[in-house]
Amino acid sequence: MSDRLAADLRAIVGPDSVLDEPSRLLPYESDGLAMLSERPELVVLPADTAEVARCLRVLHQAGVPAVARGAGTGLAGGATPVAGGVVVSTARMRTVLEVNLEDRYARVQAGVVNVNLSRTAAGAGLAYAPDPSSQMACTIGGNVANNSGGPHCFKYGATTRHVLGLVMVTAEGQVIDLSAPRVDPGGYDLVGLFVGSEGTFGLATEVTVKLVPVPAVVETVLAIFPDLDGACDSVSDIIAARLEPSALEILDKLTIDAVEDSVFAAGYPREAGAVLLIEVEGVLEEVSASVIDLRAILDRRGVLEVRTARDADERRKLWAGRKGAFGAMGRVAPDLYVADAVVPRTRLREMVARSVEICRRLDLRLATVFHAGDGNLHPNICYDRRDEDEVKRVLQAGSEILSACVEVGGSLTGEHGVGLEKLEQIELVFSPDDLDAMCRARDAWDPERRMNPGKLIPMRACMELRTPPIR
Amino acid sequence: MSDRLAADLRAIVGPDSVLDEPSRLLPYESDGLAMLSERPELVVLPADTAEVARCLRVLHQAGVPAVARGAGTGLAGGATPVAGGVVVSTARMRTVLEVNLEDRYARVQAGVVNVNLSRTAAGAGLAYAPDPSSQMACTIGGNVANNSGGPHCFKYGATTRHVLGLVMVTAEGQVIDLSAPRVDPGGYDLVGLFVGSEGTFGLATEVTVKLVPVPAVVETVLAIFPDLDGACDSVSDIIAARLEPSALEILDKLTIDAVEDSVFAAGYPREAGAVLLIEVEGVLEEVSASVIDLRAILDRRGVLEVRTARDADERRKLWAGRKGAFGAMGRVAPDLYVADAVVPRTRLREMVARSVEICRRLDLRLATVFHAGDGNLHPNICYDRRDEDEVKRVLQAGSEILSACVEVGGSLTGEHGVGLEKLEQIELVFSPDDLDAMCRARDAWDPERRMNPGKLIPMRACMELRTPPIR
């Protein structure tokens, strides 16, 4: 059956674009949540919408589940394969189809790498605003699935704010074209529903996104604090003062050390207990005025030193440290569990302290980096997946941190999605009625649960059917 | 049966909150689209979510359709009653339940009048950004149903960008609470799906909305042009120059005359062929710099005169003219058909000219006011509904203007919704497959089409069942 399926798919995408040898399947067995893995039956790499539709029709007829995959940089197991299922990779779908400078949008294939879109638009003074830390690798399609955030989403909003239209293929292989006309099309906001649905309604093949003007002036400030409290309190004060920086990022001591030991070394001072990275954008007068006000707040909160990037190079370096932080943690331990929780900004300081306390009790090494402006915490726990007891404690800590965040009015995911990782905790924030409402939506498009089954909505909540393995 | 239903509803909401006498039903027979009207069987005015749920359960059991109604200021017939159906008014649900200054949100009952929310938050320096021209009367619930816009939505985005959560009651009377936790709750974006769905999934009873800081400095500029072309071209230039005013509104000569003849007289000059109203917000330095750049563009495009509001009073007056424009048109003819179409901003000048030409050919009086920054045209056709031939020509013109807008890549509705008015034209922008996708969503929540039946999605597209009248 698997051979027959491979042959049918090869007839659509060509002989080289269906992978079935174990050695070639290996890289697809997990995503950024390395502790969970599963061997897919096949990986197929279609080239465009038409090929995706034909592939999904074949899978539908065979009753085989499909899991879409962009770059596999997701951190919640959203792209973990399903046993007996097929991974549909967008790796061959990397074309920027259109850049419209007048109406400021771009139409891209789902597999386009995030940073390449901004590079393509840069010549015209435009950019794609959402900038996940993985933007050098992650794809626009993956960003759509997870409604991804990034440092500058504090100002610009997460992915859903930037997606104008989609072309999507359903479980049955039907193409739904929600990409034209380009301005607000009226009717139901299906695009809004599909963004962030983690591939459970279907597979987005083309995405129309908003482009924003590159700001005239950008000022990047690194504020060095003796401890996390001063950095957290500064963030609260900055927001209360209605200053509107485009990014507010905090890194703690363990993260600073890891970054400075790595190729991403950004000149973060080793003596700091925490650094707050602030970016301000706008016209010259506005930026200058904001920086003066910011400086006063930082001083009041006991900043040790304030550094300002003198040019684009210095700015790039400060950001490379932040964006390379997850990679740099590789020096500390072989594996990294990146938790992702959101709390009201006013509870940030308290929740940071609680996560430190939880990890201390469970004897785990915690590093913390976070999108402070969004209240989006990333407690990063360093571990070794070969140590079973440690893995257990990591999961325990993740669960306790999430519960604590929910307790103070927060939620489970700021930007990484629910995936497999948070299936159990989702019941902390949604009642059975809420989950029922979601299942109704799911039933409307994928009643047999063939698209990324078992992700986002717990199986038992929805009475998700376990899809049969390929026989 | 109707008496029995009235008695059942009175048992829930109290004797005075069910209307059944013809004289009291009269105001509910149409919304702002006065040419369409229908007598409802009953009007019920519940006080809160629990009462709405009980009322909808009674209607569900009786097989009676329900049409939600806020202030009835909608312009597309979205709140037109259904023959034999019940109107559920939110007029008694006017409580602001919570204003949270730290996390900048408010939780309100659906019947809260738009402007009252900003007034409540003003003391704390916050505001609710979306400002429909009808904001003195229209309700937050109605804004949610239509994803309403307004002049300042050019900067801030339409209603959907500001809704953080909802409590909704389904056709069956089930309460879906999507209001907590308050930060991004993960899971499907059902809130996004429900906003703009014109009451066809259910009835929103409580809404949690984002509040934004009132800007430090606001500058309001009135640019007076000899004709519409100069005003339209200035808008294109302003956007191309990446200036970012918060509002860009154009009024044509007939509108100026009507406003100046009315109680909304704003001092718009009678000799003008068009005025462009521009508002710039921010910190002082930024605003001053923007106004200098704006001035240069206006001069290049042949502005006759530029006036700047000297204080809050003058600013209010300039805006009162714009927001009172629809009301002022009452002086020109007894009825006003307010069309609502969107075009890419780069096609604005051309589409204004085409709508003028269409109305001239059909011998209709056209006044034009528009949210120029959003490409959102409002060709206003003055008519008398007692003149059957004129009504026909008005509808013909509306249809031709919409088709022309769609032709150049535009769409059917910028902010008023589809309602009854544009049911036929919706097939210009959506394919049968697209409509099928929408019907799938509708089926998930309201398979029997009891919530606002026959609106938004054409009956035949979805095989909407005509609901039986009350026997």
Query: How would you classify the quaternary structure?
Result: homodimer
Report the C-alpha radius of gyration of chain A, rounded: 22 Å
Low-confidence stretches of chain A: 463-471
Instruction: Give the N-terminus to C-terminus distance of chain A in angstroms.
Output: 6 Å
Give a count of the beta strands of chain A, DSSP E runs of length 2 or more: 19
Helix content of chain A: 25-40%
Estimated structural class of chain A: alpha+beta
Number of helical elements of chain A? 17
The overall pLDDT average of chain A reads 89
Which percent band covers the strand fraction of chain A? 15-25%
The coarse overall form of chain A would be globular
Major beta sheet summary of chain A: 8 strands, antiparallel
Largest interface between protein chains, with number of residues from each side: A-B, 73 and 73 residues
Describe it.
The structure is a homodimer of 471-residue chains. With 471 residues, the first copy, chain A, is of the alpha+beta class. Helices cover 35% and strands 21% of the residues of chain A. In chain A, a hairpin with a 4-residue loop joins strand 5 and strand 6 (105-109). The longest helix of chain A has 20 residues, at 388-407. Chain A is globular and about 70 Å long. Chains A and B meet through strand 9, helix 7, helix 10 and helix 16 of A and strand 9, helix 7, helix 10 and helix 16 of B.
